[in-house]
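Protein: PRC-barrel domain-containing protein
Species: marine metagenome
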Amino acid sequence: MSLSNTSANKNIPNSVPSERLWLRSELMGTQVITTDTGRRLGVVGEV
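Structure follows.
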């Protein structure tokens, strides 16, 4: 799963790329890591 934005739907107003729609259960327990340094920030425990 990728958390980066895509420009696939940037020409359609008020649209949300499907990559940004996740179930709460999919996010819980997910590790958060910085893209620039690769440093682990923690684990998602609350949405």
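Remarks: The chain has one domain: 1-47.
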